[in-house]
Amino acid sequence: MAGQGNLYKEKTAILKHRQWRGLKDTWYDYTQWLKLWYMLAAWLLKHPIQNVKALFRYRWMFTYLTVPSFFDRMMASMQGAALRAARNNMNTLVIEVTQMLTDLFTADLHLHPNSEKAKEAGKKIIVLDELVPILLTKGFKGYKVILQQEFAAYLPSLINQHSPVHYIEQSESYGLPADVCPLPSLEAGIAIEDDYPILAAPCFISCNMPCDGSIMTSALQDRRHGLKSHALNIPLRWKRENVQEYAVAEYMDCIRFIEKQTGAVYDWDALKEAVEIYNQQTRLKMEKWEMNMTDISPHTGATAWLYRIFEYQAACGSKIALKNDEKVNAILRRQVAQNKFPKTVRHRAILWNTPANMYANLNAWLLDCWGIDSVAEMIDFQGSEIIDTSSKESMLAGIAKMAQGATMRVHTKGGYHVILDDLWVKYEQFNADMIIMFDQISCKGVGAISGIFEEEARRRGVHFVWLPQDLMDPTTISRRSMRDHINRYMDTVMKEKPLDPTLVDFDDSESW
């Protein structure tokens, strides 16, 4: 029997062989897969001893060995411009991540104890909480910046669903309640296990994002890395103009703190150069959104939102990322101009609230099994304002505003209107016909207004699906359970048959 599900190895959902996408797309996908392996091998061999040490020192590092399989899952069945955009996005992410890992491991005192070279390298690194965009520190020319939790927590949780489980269990055995959001629980568990790299960095910048759970776990992380810390407090009601003066003052205090710890003087010209690059990245992202509003939505799914998150947080102001954006947008424009749409789409869905890291490739399954195209996702919408570079004051105000609209936080903080009202705006803009609302069971914020969502959906006559998930913890709600929930809705409410029956039910409990 034909069907994508028949290609999966039992319990792993790993493909028995590469997918056939037509001669042209199959060949392109295969060559890009080989390119990925080349990039990973070149990185490993550039510093072989250091990288092998990291593999054996850090439990989460083994997850990066499964990246090729992760990319295949994210790009299942993609063809045409979507496939090319996805491969370019993810390969660019590899370029940036491997360089950052090299910078991190070169200065890591866990890997290089008593090394003066590592200590000196660490002195040129500013450590940030992963939700503080790197753009904030571009004025410190000559300094590298590391997002502390990015490589140990966030990326591994996407690549391998089992990666967070051990650390979450350590947090709970340490006394953290089991109903805490898995994100701060995971970050705390890594600190408890002493699995963050240790740097002789001048300082660490924490923040109050995205929620109170993350604020509390900062104490554990601070205790482990032992760096001089500064808390960057971001206004909760960030949509109010009367908080902007406070936001700018907080950022200015942060600059002064870093200047004091590093001895460096903030370079406003270097900042302006980076901001102008970031502005162009944002313009190109806006163009992608505009293309997705048409009947030909060429840039959808997890490879779109994951790349934007990484670009916004870690690759903002990056010339490499900007070059990729320009290339990808040119590819997407050609497909739209040619009126090509190599996808079978029954529904255009808005995916709202924070998606499940442990099932990052859910978008591919929705499209292949039921023809549900994820034309817009809440997690994709951050950094949608152009920063005025005409003066120091305007740049500072724009960057402070940028930090307030960080990943997740841009719609989950600021008042109910930023998550409720904006949903209906996006629903109309993207010409959607259904909404899939992630019900993050351990997040108390959005759950408090669930009734308002339902009432408004009923009033508008919108197909509205609640999809339970637990962010980074597959032990409470599995991928299979999430699929079952969608299956039941499509069968009983929509009265539809699947495009590919082999994808309706399969066991991927042992899958990365």
In short:
This protein is an alpha/beta fold and 512 residues long.
Structure explained in plain terms:
The protein is α/β, with parallel strands linked by helices. The chain contains 21 helices and 8 strands. Strand 3 (204-207), helix 9 and strand 4 form a beta-alpha-beta unit. The longest helix has 27 residues, at 80-106. It is globular and about 65 Å long. It starts with 22 loop residues before the first helix and ends in a 19-residue tail after the last helix.
Task: Looking at this protein, list some descriptive labels.
21 helices, 512 residues, alpha/beta, 4-stranded parallel sheet, globular, 8 strands
